[in-house]
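Two proteins follow. First one:
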Amino acid sequence: MPPEVTTTLSATNLGFWIQTGAFVLSAIGAIAVIFYNGRVSRQRATVDLVLHQKADSDLINALSMIYAMKRNNENLSVHLPTLQSDQGKCIRLVLNSYEFVALGIRVGAFDEQMFKEMQCSNYVKVWEATRGLIQDIRQQQQKETFFQEFEWLAKRWIKKPLKKRHS
């Protein structure tokens, strides 16, 4: 081959690789931005959720009732026949709210680590207080899936509790 043909092929080859490299880097950058934005969106959704929960007076009152019943060693299962009563509605409100959160975490809509750092002890306390009632509801309704997401998350956090931060 004459030298001018080799030079032309080399220049063409070099241009091709520069263009290909730029395209690959652009694609990697776009993917990184998508993942970053997804993470930021999950974190923002988690913050919004916690703020909403802290402003929901019905949920706050319902949680207070459950905590008081737990402190008094009251068996929540006694409310099973009367889940339509005021106390029963409070229990259902908390359970449904916690099921929603757990499902959101499982499907990636909320940031688990952030929520865990903010709410782990509260979440586990509610699980411990309502575990017997949930088992009774499942048995009565003959459906093992009631509040399964809540159970999954609580057991997961019990198995891997928060670690103490070293300053």
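Second one, unrelated to the first:
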Amino acid sequence: MKKTTNWLNLLKTLNFAPFKRDFMTPKQIKKTDNNSLIFTWSDGNISELTYKKLRDSCPCANCSGESVILHSVKPQKIFLETPGRYDLKDIQPVGNYAITLVWGDNHNTGIFSWDLLYRLAKLAEALEAQAKQKQKDHDHHHDHNHPGNHDH
């Protein structure tokens, strides 16, 4: 479960990230066949977030914990293996600033603001680019370790 923790910690640091802070709104949200949502943003960017990433980033107090004056309430780990956890049943608008996602285990208390979704999408892109670069570096390093491959 380390990946989820890293993801949430990274997400929290994003509150201070130097991303363009214009208020982005999705022009379209579309379900895909491979368990993800595709967002078309008002700035023309298109991003994809998997159901797993969305559920693991749920901002409700039960999932992400909450800060109460003088102490923190930790999220309850019991929920992590619930059947239907990553099965998205419905998307409900919250005013004109957010959506609530209804999951197969009936969880529906996380309010995903447009800003949070946009930051999640940017973070997912950054992590993907980082992984690709690591793979590229690994492949490049691997090539140099083969004798007889000197004609560069």
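SUMMARY FIELD: Confidence is low (pLDDT under 50) at residues 16-20. The chain has one domain: 2-141.
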